[in-house]
Amino acid sequence: MKDIDPKALFRLSVLGPLVSREHLSRGELQRIVRHLAEQHYAIPGSGRVRIAEKTIEAWYYAWRREGIAGLIPKTRADRGCSKLTHELQEAILAAKRENPRRSIRQIRQLLEAAGQVARGSLSRSAIHRLLQQQGLSRLSGSSSEPQERRSFVANEACAIWYGDVMHGPTLTLTGGRRKTYLVTLFDDASRLVAHSAFCLGETALDIEGVLKQALLRRGLPRKLVVDNGAAYRAATLQGVCARLGVVLIHCRPYAPEGKGKLERWHRTFRDQFLSELDVRHLRDLADLNARLWAWIEEVYHRAPHGGLNGITPLARYQQDLQKIRTLGAQATQLDALFYHRLTRFVRKDGTVAYDGRRFEVPFELSGKTVSLLVDPHPRTVIGVEDKDGNSLGFATALDAIANQQRPRRKPLAATPAAEPRGAVCSNLIELAHQQYHGKQED
Predict the structure, then answer these.
(1) What is the residue range of 382's domain?
(2) What is the pLDDT of residues 244-296, one digit of tens each?
(3) Is residue 296 part of a domain?
């Protein structure tokens, strides 16, 4: 299975607020695009942090035409031509959007100081015309103006899931005291906990493990709303969601209001579970999770919920069972969807390294770079693939002792061809031998 281009995944994550909408009212596209262009991003392979409105809008229409394939970067047909005018326009617009209060004089000074334009070569009128065309010549609104927020509820279960991590208790485990983290996926319409688990970290791998169990237990969500943490922006998580047709949406940084229902559940969890938990009864992490799952299924899911007009979360979820998307045939391939692909160089002895261990791969791959296919949860190695996702064979744990008796393949010796009579000898020594002894016989 071929990896999805990381830049395409990044562009899809930027478009989250757009692609998650089934319908856009008049003027809403421009408003959302303008809002997205004001955000800061960790752009793969670039030092920039802002994205132009035109670029975002082009990505959106490409996604509508071709899906995620339309977001894969394509080589420009006009690469190599001069782009001075275009680059200068982008620089002017970026400078204005970064600080809407910058005057034309300040923008020109900034570009000259950065060496993007020769001193005195850029006229004020040229900057003014460009800003006017883009609607940036006048200030609109205020940076202190509050963002409009409205309470809403999804129309059916599994329409929207929220994902987040909260700090859990500290346990005494083998090796000392360890802090735990509660990773949760929460359904908007029913307030059902799709799955939740205490982990010893808050990495992308921990989140993927919880997501995998939630998919098996509760079906496929249409949207998954998460925060902007590095774990939630991991390419592996974005790839899983893209393959399953789940729209991954990242909330604005420092805006927990976007996941208000999950934040409310966290408060209930602290008041009802953590306040009653006696860590002296816990031997390990499995003990803690066993109590967590028992409380969720027997207490929380079966308690009448005020936000559901007295219906329990489980009953509300069951009302929409016929509408929920199931994994279907994908259930048998779910493990493969969560596999990680790690770039590895095959050594001369036909081995690669993973997790402090060495694995043997087909010997003909020696000296080549391959993708090592691993199941990261049990930390097992599946095999090796090429860059296009085609299998190149299995990978087995190295058994150096057994290799002492293992027969080696040797290169086949070339069979010498019979020399025709009268043929000139191609070996200098044999030729000298024939000439020397021929003279002696004469």
Answers:
(1) 339-404
(2) 999 999 886 555 555 788 889 999 999 999 988 888 888 889 999 999 999 99
(3) yes
